[in-house]
Amino acid sequence: MQLSKARIQEHNQPLLASHQLRLNLLSEELSERGVAVRDLIQRLVDFQVAIPSWALGTGGTRFGRYAGVGEPQSLEQKIEDVGLLHALNRSSGAISLHIPWDIPENAAHIKALMQEHDLAFDAMNSNTFQDQRDQQHSYKFGSLSHTDAAVRKQAVEHNLEVIRYGEELGSKALTVWLADGSSFPGQRNFRTVLQNTYESLREIYAALPADWKVFVEYKPFEPYFYSTVIQDWGTSFLLANKLGDKAYTLVDLGHHLPNANIEQIVATLLMEGKLGGFHFNDSKYADDDLTVGSIKPYQLYLIFLELVHGMDDPQTNNPPISYMIDASHNLKDPLEDLLQSVEAIQLAYAQALLVDKQALEAARADNDVVGAQEILQNAFRTDVRPLVREAFRQAGGALDPLGLYRKLDVRRQLYDERGVGIATGL
Ligand code: AOS
Ligand code: ZN
Ligand code: ZN
Ligand code: ZN
């Protein structure tokens, strides 16, 4: 289904007066606090976060899966779903594909469809954590790190194939998330598997087009429960450094052991110019892939503060970061969840933009612990929703994307169109 500009206008019209009132009130207060409101809103308008193709269908747990309805059955339908999200909030103008779940049969047709929806391709994702039909070697005991050179070769070749698909479509990055690990002490020689992984990655790196990047994602455990080969940001950073300028670390918020100081990891990677990709989600226990900002909104804000201050610092030499939502939904309508996630990201971003950097640095220089904390908390405790809504509106989106989605009864329409089938690739 397509969402016309006229339909969005029609939705915004009755909400406009009360929105304007709230926005004016907040703008006045913020101007008094020295915030350049118009510039801030423009930064929100410019911010884009990619949607992964696998977040569009209902996920499952290892105990089972409840079918959703109206889920996309093809790459075309996935693009249509992201196009709909983007029409609603104008902040999700990119899609991240996964091979072999999203093999583009006809690249020209797919590119035309992308253009129609004003979408770009974010990083391509390879998959060496599942065995595919007709695959010669199994990844049961690893892929890029495998003890058998033939398996490593097959996994490298798969990644090269993903790069080729990405080139056809106009993507500029490859994300490697490696499930490789072990479930019992003694199962693996830590040094051998890391060395194997490095050598495999080197072959992939050598095949990267000149204007491409590779993102190395880390994760402390799961699907294996004793060790993973790329367990933490240090290991990812080490590999990225050894590989070269086109290799970067990717931070997924759910891939840390409890209470890790993720904002500090972000700051360190930015200092080194090595933060390439970002997967947003939220978690209470581990890689829960819950809605962004639903469990730890203050942490999300602190992370955004590091992203904003780090990227704005002229001394930082980090390329633009590929932002993506990496979530999975068992209970919610996936599209509703993604609308909530995008909004949560924009809210945290807006709060981070409120912080007076100079005042914060002055408090730090004075060792004014309370003062510095107050500056951070004041920004966090500001209700910035009018700013985010205004950014959606200025960009041509809905003042209340979720409200409009519900009013249009989108899921019902998708169900009529597509039926009950399970989304492809999940
Ligand atoms: C897995 O835990 C990682 O978060 C991956 O980034 C991603 O979810 C996966 O590649 C999708 O299958
Ligand atoms: Zn991820
Ligand atoms: Zn994950
Ligand atoms: Zn995750």
Automatic annotation (TrEMBL):
What positions belong to coiled-coil segments? none
List, alphabetically, the InterPro entries matched.
Answer: L-rhamnose_isomerase (IPR050337), Xyl_isomerase-like_sf (IPR036237), Xyl_isomerase-like_TIM-brl (IPR013022)
GO MF terms listed in the record are: isomerase activity; metal ion binding
Q: Which Pfam families match?
A: AP_endonuc_2
Q: Which UniProt keywords apply?
A: Isomerase, Manganese, Metal-binding
Q: Does the keyword Isomerase apply?
A: yes
Q: Which residues form the Xylose isomerase-like TIM barrel domain?
A: 104-288
Q: Which protein, by its recorded name, is this?
A: L-rhamnose isomerase / sugar isomerase
